[in-house]
């Protein structure tokens, strides 16, 4: 599991860094073109929005994988270790259900619908934009499976991998 998690981390981190860098360049370029040269470039704004969508979805998967998502731990901290363990599994399976049903299944449905659609500013298939959903679903699903396996191994007294 450590190897799979390392690969997932590498892909998510590098993709996020690249998308963020391109987005920053596009936004700076748009501001310079608009305010210094008085010639705004409409497609840069649209592309920056689409890259931001990709960035958010990939980082959401990464955050779930790191277990750094928003958590209100007050109630859990006041429960017995067994109940805490059950809540951990319930949380992981809820995330897995969301990733599979909404991100994967829904994402592939959106992708199928979006492929023939064209963006007006970029004239690209909207499928490229919608592809972020199933990719995020795949990453979230794999991360969550890693989390569940590590939690099971920890319960059995083995070292989490």
Label this structure with key terms.
161 residues; mainly alpha; 6 helices; elongated
Structural overview:
This protein is an all-alpha fold and 161 residues long. 78% of the residues lie in helices and 0% in strands. It contains six helices and no strands. It has helices at 2-35, 42-66, 74-77, 81-114, 127-130, 132-155. The chain is elongated and about 65 Å long. The relative contact order is 0.14.
Structural class: mainly alpha
Average of the residue pLDDT scores: 92
Poorly predicted regions:
none
Largest sheet, strands/sense/barrel? none
**Residues in helix, %:** over 70%
Number of helices: 6
- Number of separate strands: 0
Order of helices and strands: HHHHHH
Shape: elongated
- The portion of residues forming beta strands comes to under 5%
Radius of gyration: 20 Å
In whole angstroms, the N-to-C terminal distance is 5 Å
Q: Can you summarize this structure?
A:
By secondary structure, the chain is an all-alpha fold. The chain is built from 6 helices and no strands.
What's the layout of helices and strands?
Blueprint: H1 2-35, H2 42-66, H3 74-77, H4 81-114, H5 127-130, H6 132-155
Helix pairs in contact: 1-2, 1-6, 2-6, 4-6
